[in-house]
Amino acid sequence: MKYLVGALLISMSSLVFAGHHEKGDMSPNVLATKTAYESFMAGDLEAWKAVHSEDVVWTILAGLPYAGTYVGPDAIIKNVFEQISTLWPDFKVDPIAYYESGDKVFVHVKITIGGKQTEALHMATLKDGKQIAFTPFENSGFMMEQLD
Fold first, then answer.
1. Backbone phi, then psi, for 41, in 5-degree steps?
2. How big is the chain by its Cα radius of gyration, in Å?
3. In this structure, are residues 21 and 30 in contact, taking their beta carbons and an 8 Å threshold?
4. Residue 98, SS3 per DSSP
5. Is residue 130 within 8 Å of 53, Cβ to Cβ?
6. pLDDT of residue 26
7. Residue 108: pLDDT above 90?
8. pLDDT in tens, 73-103
9. With 70 as the cut, is the pLDDT of residue 140 above it?
10. What distance in Å separates the CA atoms of residue 29 and residue 139, rounded to the nearest whole number?
């Protein structure tokens, strides 16, 4: 019985730490995703585009004014980024942690609008070092409340 419990604990511990990357120990997918966030926050959209495929697909879920599916970096900039900067001029997103599972990188983020904060989870899918898909799971209720 104690061997079964020990094996179970060892198995569970690998799940807890699987895919979490500390600074300096990043996979190419996590590094590309981190570069995308840093470029976005710096306003360097050319660097942001460089880590995305030409046919990257962003899916913004219902609850936000710009909900929909957008294909290609230019469509995302026009239909998502420009909307965000118009709706929330002081919008800020700060990654807290990156978690990797296969071709997916999940990013736990802190979002700040108007001095108020919430958290969200973003999911990026990568291939050959570039994002090919992205879905943010946002706190849309919080974000819409900040429009007042």
1. -70, -25
2. 17
3. yes
4. strand
5. yes
6. 84
7. yes
8. 999 999 999 999 999 999 999 999 999 999 9
9. yes
10. 25
